[in-house]
Amino acid sequence: MAGRFDPLTRTAVRGGRTSVPAPTGADAVTAAGAGARSREWAPGRGVDLGLTLGPLRRGPGDPTFRTTPDGSVWKTSRTPEGPATLRVALAPRTGTARAEAWGPGAAWMLDGLPALLGDGDDPAAFVPRHRLVHASHRRRPGLRLTRTGLVLESLIPTVLEQKVTSDEAYRAWRRLVCGYGEPAPGPRGGVPQGMYVMPDARTWALIPSWDWHKAGVDAKRSAAIIRCARVANRLEEAAAMELPQAAARLEAVPGIGPWTSAETLQRSNGAADAVTTGDLHLPGIIGFALAGNRDADDAEMLELLAPYAGQRHRAARLILLAGRVPPRRTPKMPKTDIGKL
């Protein structure tokens, strides 16, 4: 539910919320074009596309993610079978998910549709322990934790977000995907303009240093991405692992720490307990929301989230979506662009 009393703030976006228009009347979902594989899937419970798939969007100009006025979400991926474009929307009356996909990886994407829409998630396992969390949970019954099954797709943009503002990371992601990726497969005129599929692992590893610099990515982050690309097959195996083993697999790569692994596994594995530690803002937001302490550190945050063991990531998202944040008392982190140097 969004609107006057649920504004789309930066904190809500951090919580994974994306605006998806609600189709009505003439805007009802129709077939997008020829050559598509298609599938319908009935979730059996309400699903909010904007809340469920929102964490996969990297900024408003993400070339791998779009929403359209007919209520569709478009997403590109580089699957184990090749590049693919997925379009998914919910039937207005029944809530049935209707999906179409194009490209060599189309069948793989459609097979993973239920997991992408949170079929493997168990919201019933979550029991709110705080009034604010209870109100946020009740207000968002369609929140599901997505699972893409693709590690590198979430890992690379997460590395780009290390130690910089989100705007800088989003700009770098756009430049690199558009510069080294490939146009999204699909019918001519049917796919939203400007959509691309992210590069494959070999291409990431071969991006020259000057293009990383032009994209505003420093040597530390680019080196971490190149190391990940060189062991991409081993990292992709983490999508089928339990959370501790998956985190250990990712963190074995120099430059990948607990913050990066948690942010990645929340998306690739649908890990409900992958709480983000080492974040500049999250402990203060959770501390302020649950205990009135804006100066909380990771230890206090984990203590406050302890009653939600097994579901700490969901609890953190609901707190972010509630929008109760401490008033700003310091200037924003300055934006930089090393590509201009």
The gist of it:
The protein is of the alpha+beta class. Helix content is 39%, strand content 10%. It has helices spanning 10-14, 49-53, 106-111, 113-116, 131-139, 151-160, 166-180, 201-206, 209-214, 219-230, 232-236, 243-251, 258-268, 282-291, 298-305, 312-322; strands at 37-41, 65-67, 73-79, 82-90, 97-102, 182-183, 196-197.
What would your notes on this structure say?
Strand 4 and strand 5 form a beta hairpin. With 341 residues, the protein is of the alpha+beta class. Helix 6 packs antiparallel against helix 10, helix 12 packs across helix 13 and helix 14 crosses helix 15. Helices cover 39% and strands 10% of the residues. It has a five-stranded antiparallel β-sheet with strand order 1-5-4-3-2. Strands 6-7 form a two-stranded antiparallel ribbon. It starts with 9 loop residues before the first helix and ends in a 19-residue tail after the last helix. The protein is built from 16 helices and seven strands.
Topology:
Blueprint: H1 10-14, E1 37-41, H2 49-53, E2 65-67, E3 73-79, E4 82-90, E5 97-102, H3 106-111, H4 113-116, H5 131-139, H6 151-160, H7 166-180, E6 182-183, E7 196-197, H8 201-206, H9 209-214, H10 219-230, H11 232-236, H12 243-251, H13 258-268, H14 282-291, H15 298-305, H16 312-322
Antiparallel strand pairs: 1-5, 2-3, 3-4, 4-5, 6-7
Helix pairs in contact: 5-16, 6-10, 6-13, 12-13, 14-15
